From TrEMBL:
InterPro entries: DUF6909 (IPR054204). It comes from the Bacteria. This is Uncharacterized protein.
Length: 84
């Protein structure tokens, strides 16, 4: 859901026009690396239950940390290739 506007922008950058509705599109030929990471957030199912009502813990941190770690690793690898 949150990735929609970014994917629309990527499509418009590649094809220089608005995306078609109800049509499959191909974002493989991007001149840049494109990736999507998905994780569960603390969006509450009810007003009384979310991550903020319990004691502060590391619940939910693992997925965010793993995504951040992977992005930083890819950046470091790319920079190392440029230095060689």
């Amino acid at each position: 859901m949150e990735a929609g506007p970014y994917l629309n922008a990527a499509y418009e950058f590649i094809y220089y026009n608005r995306y078609e509705e109800n049509e499959f599109i191909n974002l493989s030929p991007t001149p840049f690396e494109l990736g999507i990471a998905h994780y569960a957030s603390d969006t509450p199912y009810s007003k009384a239950k979310n991550l903020g009502v319990r004691n502060l813990s590391y619940e939910g941190v693992e997925s965010t940390y793993a995504i951040s770690q992977t992005i930083l690793k890819k950046i470091a690898e790319r920079e190392m290739r440029l230095l060689k």
